[in-house]
Design brief:
Elements: H1 5-15, E1 37-38, E2 47-51, E3 56-60, E4 65-74, H2 75-81, E5 113-116, H3 126-131, E6 138-141, H4 143-147, H5 149-164, E7 166-174, E8 182-183, E9 187-188, E10 192-199, E11 204-211, E12 219-221, H6 223-230, E13 232-233, H7 240-244, H8 257-263, H9 272-295
Length: about 300
């Protein structure tokens, strides 16, 4: 079967999704050009900073997950992202040493979703979206949380960025306690998830914090409180007063999954030929990646 040019282009983009990006691109993703800082020294061993087109992460070789993902959302980038067709293509991150990175098979029959920190729905281009499926941007996330409350928090963030014009966003896991669970004996499971935002025009910020379970509960906290809970200073350039005073965040449960889906442009009804073509792209992508690994 022949693939349409757009689908062939998608294959090319997917093959390039692990490509390294210049570190010069990273400061634009951080408030005042300063990356989040670890305040808990237990998180520091075997960390690796990685830049992508539309987000940056600090990856932990101990947890085999990212410790944070940083983004700069603007009204224009959110509008562009809503026009990008989603093509799922999770993949190992080749820039992370093999012993320090998660593998696709770690998540098979794990009972957890592969949860994005920097969401695919934030990505303003097809290439940026393909990069978001790197496992360096993924944590084991409770399926109910990922598909309901967390999806609504992500949508709330995009709508807030649209309303205010721009936001700096830092998303990450919390690993609390000594008896942490893991999947496949390798990848640590977060106990909580956070999404911190900062509006540089208004000079205010705050964070959503939710347990990594299906309870549907969350709390809004100040950036100072988040620093204590997560061991990460999301926006280190801000003065203490701004960190201590929390913005009033939108109520994420106001958005259902239908609301989120309906906010994205819809094309024609998908046919079985569309589905078959999509699956062919995914299969070709997997085969080519395996071939490239065998060669290099």
């Amino acid at each position: 079967m022949l693939l349409k040019p757009a689908r062939l282009a998608a294959v090319v983009l997917l093959l390039g999704c692990g490509a390294a990006r210049s570190s010069d691109a990273c400061p634009a993703l951080f408030a005042d050009g300063r990356a989040p800082e670890l305040t808990n020294p237990k998180l520091a061993p075997r960390t690796l900073a990685l830049c992508f087109d539309a987000y940056a992460v600090l990856h932990s070789g101990v947890a085999r997950t990212p410790l944070y993902a940083a983004e700069h959302l603007t009204r224009a980038s959110v509008a562009a992202a809503r026009l990008v067709e989603r093509i799922d293509a999770f993949h190992d991150e080749d820039r992370v040493p093999p012993d320090d990175r998660a593998r696709l098979d770690d998540y098979v029959r794990s009972g957890f979703d592969r949860g994005h920190l920097a969401p695919a729905g934030d990505m303003p281009t097809g290439e940026a979206q393909a990069q978001s499926f790197s496992l360096a941007n993924i944590v084991p996330q409770d399926r109910v949380l990922n598909r309901s409350l967390w999806a609504a928090i992500e949508e709330s963030t995009r709508r807030l960025a649209t309303r205010r014009g721009q936001l700096f966003v830092v998303t990450g896991p919390v690993y609390a306690g000594d008896g942490l669970a893991s999947i496949n004996g390798r990848v640590l499971v977060p106990t909580q998830m956070f999404k911190a935002i900062y509006d540089p025009v208004a000079g205010e910020g705050g964070a959503w914090l939710a347990p990594n379970d299906g309870s549907g509960t969350f709390q809004s906290v100040s950036l100072a409180a988040l620093r204590t809970i997560a061991g990460i200073d999301a926006f280190p350039s801000l003065p203490p007063g701004q960190k201590a005073s929390a913005i009033t965040l939108p109520e994420p449960r106001a958005y259902s999954r239908d609301d989120i889906a309906n906010h994205r442009p819809r094309g024609r009804e998908q046919t079985w030929q569309d589905w078959l073509g999509h699956e062919a792209v995914r299969a070709l992508h997997r085969a080519l990646r395996q071939l490239l690994r065998a060669i290099f």
